């Protein structure tokens, strides 16, 4: 195991399409950590897609499942956790996130839109104007994402590997426990 985080979990937060799942897998491998994606745990256990959970049970039920999964995941150590984009919405979730190091992958609405414009798997973006929807959701959530320990502002054209490397390089500057450096 890479000793950088001394076993504490790394939580990736950010908007849909920011690359939490993609970059999270790479970070897990760099850190010698396990990888968990809360969206994947929810869909595997519900045996339904996120679209179907939203359509059949509603967003509130999805958020409840998401909190349950986060509370279970946070009982483990040595994990890189890709969260769902809305995990920051509930106050109770922050008590779990704060057990680890929280990294915000911050991207502009245009970058997110370009990545997701062909994608039909994000129910909140099934809208006649997805770019405006992304812009509005980001506005509502920005102050919550900003509570993360580390903000990584994504550059257009940057590869997932480059982003993971940037996260690894910046972790020492924000470690909570000085004895963990
Ligand atoms: N650095 C990158 N450059 C180009 N494409 C990327 C990059 N990172 C991720 N992608 C692509 O963007 C899309 C969204 O990425 P990903 O699923 O990792 O986002 P996410 O933050 O996990 O989104 P969600 O919150 O919806 O789960 C995927 O198709 C992925 O392959
Ligand atoms: O930003 C959001 O609210 C979401 C992001 C995805 O990760 C999924 O959790 C779901 O599509 C909702
Ligand atoms: Mg994801």
Which characteristics define this entry?
Rossmann fold; 5-stranded parallel β-sheet; binds adenosine-5'-triphosphate; binds (3R,4S,5R)-3,4,5-trihydroxycyclohex-1-ENE-1-carboxylic acid; binds magnesium ion
What does this structure look like?
By secondary structure, the protein is α/β, with parallel strands linked by helices. It has one domain: P-loop containing nucleotide triphosphate hydrolases (Rossmann fold, 3-Layer(aba) Sandwich), CATH 3.40.50. 50% of the residues lie in helices and 12% in strands. It contains eight helices and five strands, in the order E-H-E-H-H-H-E-H-E-H-H-E-H. Strands 2-3-1-4-5 form a five-stranded parallel beta sheet. The chain starts with 9 loop residues before the first strand and ends in a 7-residue tail after the last helix. The structure holds adenosine-5'-triphosphate, (3R,4S,5R)-3,4,5-trihydroxycyclohex-1-ENE-1-carboxylic acid and magnesium ion. GO terms for molecular function: ATP binding; magnesium ion binding; shikimate kinase activity.
Q: How do the strands and helices of this protein lay out in sequence?
A:
Blueprint: E1 10-13, H1 20-31, E2 34-37, H2 38-46, H3 50-57, H4 59-73, E3 79-82, H5 91-97, E4 101-106, H6 109-116, H7 130-145, E5 150-153, H8 160-174
Parallel strand pairs: 1-3, 1-4, 2-3, 4-5
Helix pairs in contact: 1-8, 2-4, 3-4, 6-7
The structure holds adenosine-5'-triphosphate (ATP), (3R,4S,5R)-3,4,5-trihydroxycyclohex-1-ENE-1-carboxylic acid (SKM) and magnesium ion.
């Amino acid at each position: 195991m890479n000793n950088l985080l001394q076993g504490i979990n790394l939580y990736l937060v950010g908007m849909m399409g920011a690359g939490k799942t993609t970059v999270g897998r790479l970070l897990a491998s760099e850190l010698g950590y396990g990888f968990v994606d809360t969206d994947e745990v929810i869909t595997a256990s519900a045996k339904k897609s996120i679209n179907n959970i939203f359509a059949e049970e509603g967003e509130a039920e999805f958020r409840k499942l998401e909190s349950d999964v986060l509370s279970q995941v946070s009982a483990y150590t040595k994990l890189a956790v890709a969260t769902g984009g809305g995990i920051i919405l509930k106050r109770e979730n922050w008590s779990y996130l704060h057990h680890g190091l929280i990294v915000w992958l911050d991207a502009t609405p245009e970058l997110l839109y370009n990545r997701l414009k062909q994608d039909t798997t994000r129910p909140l973006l099934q809208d006649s104007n997805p770019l405006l929807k992304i812009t509005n959701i980001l506005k509502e959530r920005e102050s919550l994402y900003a509570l993360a320990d580390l903000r990584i502002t994504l550059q257009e054209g940057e590869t997932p590997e480059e982003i993971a490397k940037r996260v690894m390089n910046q972790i020492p500057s924000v470690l909570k426990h000085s004895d963990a450096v």
